[in-house]
Amino acid sequence: MVRGRYLGGSTTVNGGYFVRARREDFDRWAAAGNPAWAYEGILPFLRAMETDLDFGAGDVHGADGPMFVGRGELKHPAAAAFAAAAQELGFPHEPDKNAQSRPGFGPVPSNAVDGVRLNTGVSYLWAALDRPNLTVVGNGRVLRVVITSGRATGVLVDHGGLHTPLEAGEVVLCAGSFVTPHLLQLSGIGPRADLERLGLPVLKDASSVGARFSDHPRNRARVRSGSGETKTPSAVTTTTDGSSSVLIEPSTKILRPSAPVTRAWIRRGVSKGMGRL
Ligand SMILES: Cc1cc2nc3c(=O)[nH]c(=O)nc-3n(C[C@H](O)[C@H](O)[C@H](O)COP(=O)(O)OP(=O)(O)OC[C@H]3O[C@@H](n4cnc5c(N)ncnc54)[C@H](O)[C@@H]3O)c2cc1C
User: Fold this and answer.
1) Domain total for the chain?
2) Inside any domain, residue 201
3) How confident is the model at residue 142 (pLDDT cuts 50, 70, 90)?
4) How far is the CA of 85 from the centre of ligand 1 (A)?
5) What is the overall mean pLDDT for the chain?
6) What pLDDT sits at residue 89?
7) Does residue 77 have a pLDDT over 80?
């Protein structure tokens, strides 16, 4: 699986979509027993994390957060054709996909502004490097959590082949959806049968660690146009949730990533007629 091993993690290699979940999703998570996840409660945090270059400060957006967000103008011929076709087929226009309006077609909000990606390392950590209570250790790989008398007291780090324990009053594991449960299991926290099969100590039999993982696989058909105007590689993407998009990719240099220059996207729930697009 592709993952970003870098300051900023997978936001260094991801698609640069800066798309909020739908209100119904947040409210569903709240109703499932997590009241703090209700949309109205989360909205101030969503606003605080962004500087929305298109819509600015308002009820829905923020204008002084660390993540810069912008949308393309669907100028590229392929994106413009996609938008025109969507319009012709009667899909509603959705100029701001983070505004919780009626799902439709429109540009995708992106944290790659002018083709340059702003990952969370740049947006959050570089800005805080001067803080006396922050030390960033590069090229250090955590091997496991150190647990003493049932309490996490630090981590064991491999630094250039040297295994060094780092003590901590509090340990927050945020190594991504694959490595976080893996580290817990290496530390003796996970399903007993799995740990015993691998010869790992069982400090806590926790069946949920590493379980029920899901991702969103995509089918991608890459097409090239023979016309002079659309020689840039373009792709038509259909995701398993039924949304569909056309994307135009710039060159794939670091910080000029696969993030789209311009992207038109139709949200799920309005997929009728998609085949004709
Ligand atoms: C190809 C791809 C495309 C994506 N596209 C989008 C998108 O367009 N929009 C979107 O919103 N999301 C997208 N995502 C998802 C998004 O990037 C992730 O949800 C997000 O980065 C997860 O953040 P995280 O902090 O949980 O983990 P990560 O970003 O994976 O960060 C984990 C960090 O832990 C570090 N680490 C791992 N193991 C160790 C270890 N043993 N010791 C020390 N450090 C370790 C890694 O180096 C990394 O810095 C995409 C993901 C991928 C992989």
Assistant:
1) 1
2) yes
3) very high
4) 35
5) 82
6) 85
7) no
- What's the 111 CA to ligand 1 centre distance in angstroms? 15
Q: What separation in Å is there between the alpha carbon of 114 and the centre of ligand 1?
A: 22
Q: Does ligand 1 have an atom closer than 6 angstroms to the CB of 10?
A: yes
Q: Is residue 221 part of a domain?
A: no
Of 74-83, 210-219, 257-266, the poorest mean pLDDT is in 257-266
Q: Report the nearest-CA residue for atom 37 of ligand 1.
A: 175
Rounded Cα distance, 134 and 138, in Å: 13
Residue to substitute in 6, 7, 10, 108 for testing ligand 1 pocket (most ligand atoms within 8 angstroms of CB): 10
Report the nearest-CA residue for atom 26 of ligand 1: 176
**19, part of any domain:** no
Q: Quick one: which atom of ligand 1 is closest to the CA of 179? A: 38
Residue 144 belongs to domain spanning: 139-205
170 in any annotated domain: yes
Say what the pTM is: 0.82
CA atoms lying within 13 Å on the CB side of residue 139: 4
Tokens representing 264 are: 């038109």
pLDDT at 252: 37
Which CA distances in Å does 8 have to 5, 167, 209?
Answer: 8, 23, 24
Closest among 11, 219, 19, 234 to 107, alpha carbons compared: 19
For residue 129, what pLDDT is reported? 93
